[in-house]
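Researcher: I'd like a structural prediction for the single chain below. Treat it as a standalone chain; there are no partners to consider.
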Amino acid sequence: MQLLVLVITCLVLAPYSSGIPLQDSLSSSGKDNGDTSKWEHGYGRGIDAVLKIFGKFGLAKQDRSPPKHHSSDAESMLSQEMLNVFYGDSIMEIGNELDRKRQLETFEREALEKAVEKVSQVELSCNDTCLSLAGLAYRLKAYYFLGMMHHAGLLDILTIETLGNYSAFVPTDFAFSKLSYLLRLYFFLNPRALRALMLYHIAQGDVYSTEFRDNSLASTLLKGADLRFNVYNNSTVTASGAPINATNFNATNGVIHLVDNVIHPVPFGTIGDVIAISPAFKTLRKAVAAANLTGMLKSEAVTLTMFAPTDRAFAKLPKGYLDKLLKNKTELTAVLKYHLVRGALYVAGMPEEGNVTTLEGGALYISVCESEYYNKVWVGGADLTYPDATATNGVIQVIDQVLSPTATRRPGANLGCISTAGETKAKNPMHKMMDNEINVLPWRPEKL
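Model: Treating it as a single chain, here is the predicted structure.
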């Protein structure tokens, strides 16, 4: 079967071996046809493209040894408790690590084969002016996205024009590779969760970049879950936290925008709703109730970012301090409001080094940097352990310490990324990873 698909795909790609610039022909709608400065439009030779595709998914011979600095299961799983909050099931019960990786490889191979076969039958004989969203995604080399759409039973949305026009926010293959292998396996094993994830990447109607205004919303095919656009001072534009790196690629049934990250987790409620049901936030839930802030965190009238300390974070407080704090409503309210920032502040929009103003009125110091081994975000001295958990009224950033509005930051703390040799490395946005770190998590999650 693999050989047959390889032969068919080689034959189909043959007409494109000389390279076809998308910008020359993606103009059927008369609108902007893509910011091409950040994206490669040409093809190499057909057989090279096929081998590259198949190599990504294990069909070509490759080194199967773990990558350097490979994270352990405990690190790679993000946080099982947080995963249960957003997705509802465990993925750690699937045999051992080797079994899980083999099962994931099988899923990825089969999903790619089936998606390529289906798209090639309809799309690849078409020129650029008649490409559907599926064909255009293929031309843009979004192979993993197509495989996931097929596995979720949603590929027809991208191919059948009579279903309507849609705007697809398509993660690149590199974006999918940044997900923990356990999380990718979880989605393959849970079709309902995968379907929700992929529907959340598809907005209704034609949504062009001119409509990406700060804190604006776009309805997706996942009922009740909107994409939130944010425009930050560093010129970054995000869709529910995922940086948008290339825009306005026109298809016959919609438009594609390429994003640097998979947009997850899918929002299921407000910040208050997440805190109310999360097993990791029992103490925070108690504190929020004592300060009478539950209503504000459940309100859709205001957009907020909450730097949310886990139960383990509260357990680090000096003995007796938490009980004293819970009895002092004024001080408790000030502390909790120091964890809140107005607006949706995703990692991509955080300053590399600087302050943001909290609802308490004080300045909260943030530093974002990338090291050789993993990317790191500091928030007032705390580590950001689970980033960009979108809620319907903002975003939750999970941290490993309770922040204090009266604490003085130690001079020099959190400045720069320190390598093992003690050298300070330049700070870059968290999600920009080096090619040789493709399988390393972009953060080191706390084991909640």
